[in-house]
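Checklist before submission:
- one chain only
- standard amino acids only
- sequence pasted in full

Submission:
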Amino acid sequence: MLKDNISVPTFKATITHRERDPEFQALLLKAYRIMFTARTMSEKYEANRSICKYVHSTSAGHEAIQIAAGLQLKACDYVSPYYRDDCMMLAMGYAPQTLMMQLLAKAGDPFSGGRSYYCHPNSRQPGKPVIPHQSSATGMQVIPTTGMAQGVQYLENAGLLHETDRPVVLCSLGDGSVTEGEVSEALQFAVLKDLPIIYLVQDNEWGISVSADEARVMDAFEYAAGFKGLERIRVDGSDFEASYHAMESAIRYVRSARKPVLVHATTPLLGHHTSGVRKEWYRSDEDYAKHLSRDPLPRLQQLLVNQSDLRLIEEEVIRDVNEAFEEAAGSADPDISTVKDHVFAPTPVTGETGTRVPSGGSKVVMVDAALHAIEEIMRDHPESILFGQDVGRRLGGVFREAATLAEKFGDHRVFNTAIQEAYIIGSTAGLSAVGVKPIVEVQFADYIYPGFNQLVTEISKSCYLSMGKFPVQTLIRIPIGAYGGGGPYHSGCIESTLLTIKGIKICYPSNAADLKGLMKAAFLDPNPVIMLEHKGLYWSKVPGTLEAMTIEPSADYILPLGKGNTVLEAGEGMTIITYGMGVYWAKAAAAKFPGRVEIIDLRTLYPLDEELVFSSARKLGKCLVLTEEQLTNSFAESLAARISKACFRWLDAPVYTLGALDLPAVPLNMALEKEMLPTADKVADCVREILEF
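Returned file contents:
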């Protein structure tokens, strides 16, 4: 039972029959038109398989619960449909032809411009709920959608949300996806924070060919009982009247109580899993007959008093669907020149601005420069928040990189999370979609991997697949690198792994001034930016790294991404191209070869300042790419190959690379660690070999 004076039982097949109520009959007629439209579209696709060649799913069997949800959402709301929710899209007011444009991957597809599958919408269309980028990865939408609810709550509490109605967030998912661990992270956060979200679980008892009995010991309704504070509704999702009342109650509850609820709707599956995985391949006749007996279309038909209206509706729908399909099929394909559009949204930061070295300024260590940058950002941008493990009031980060921020800005803006890297990273997609600007932290680079799924599947693809409507504005801070006895799970480097992901930007500063300036630029960038912050440089305690301390730039200082720096110039000899701790190994080595070693600090790894790199390599003719990472198949080797190709005519020696030994982890023992990693002496030996080549 839902609290706050709203009582909702488990819904049965029918609740009350208001057959003579004209308003109710009008609602049923509207629902019937939408349902028959969706069914007609599904049949049209099946009859034209050679034209509908891209994989797709349809809502056949799921229509009643989808219409019940779609009709009751308001323009102020947020919704994440999943790949079978075309009927929900129709109920929210989208035209069949609009959906068909995506089905056929046409240029006129308003969601993705031919980039994504059918019923993978995204929209900021006025008068309709906001729909962020939708991925195909099963269950992965639950974290970003919960992030939207987190964002709505923050904006409300901060007085930054200017809506007449109180928005609700609806997350649609299939029951098979509830077994995903990331769904659990989202539900845990939603009940912990009392977020205004509805989880609509459509349960057709199949996950492709995997039956419910094979995959689980409980359904979503039973599973949800384990999340204290998550209210639950069970409903026959093939009964429109019951579904409408269930969704009406769920929406009313969330809109008023501002707490989460899960609606478990049982539905038949009348179509194929997808057009590419046919039902006849794995379902028995008996199973299909059982599902067909619950077909929501005839059940809805029986509720209508005036059956004569139906024939006219059906004739109109068939004509409209046929016309829409012909127009969509005959429309233009995307212009191939657009294939590179929308990888990133344009950034407002295009040049270095502000005062890098203010008169009378004092030196700061890198960790304090980062802390001050975040403080200045949060002071100027009330829409910004900071969260992650142990960054809250008590500790302020295990490296004190967030110290005092919660005291200054409040626990609602700076707070701890559970050990949930997937939620920490993935929620930023939803937060960004509603207008919150998150700064989050993964405590150590070695622990990025639980959040990798969200980073790849949701965040990196959002701008491209939404044609720029939903770039994810997020700043992800990650302490990285070895710092003397940190051991195998606290010393790793991950930049090469990150650089395989397209659609994110990566910074790796080597000193306090660069870190502060890049932090400001990263926050202002509308795209996802990862800030790799070397633990060994945080306090300049590692011998030879005192120059990581710099005069602190002014609050207005901004350093654009993609601009490297010539740390040391040379008129002859060779160049070392490096970043992070490598800058200090290079400086120590260069001191042994006065005037013969140029050092380029990349500062950002993507975008990369190739112009600076290539010009230095061409000028000197000899080059070393230096990294802290294990070398084989690394970013350093990739960059060396690019230099070789672009600068071949100017080179007097092969492009050398130097990095850590190819070991699976950094050993705990400091002597073993030193043997694994580059050192100034190892760099000097390599420089000598290159100069003598």
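Reviewer check: The longest strand covers residues 623-630.
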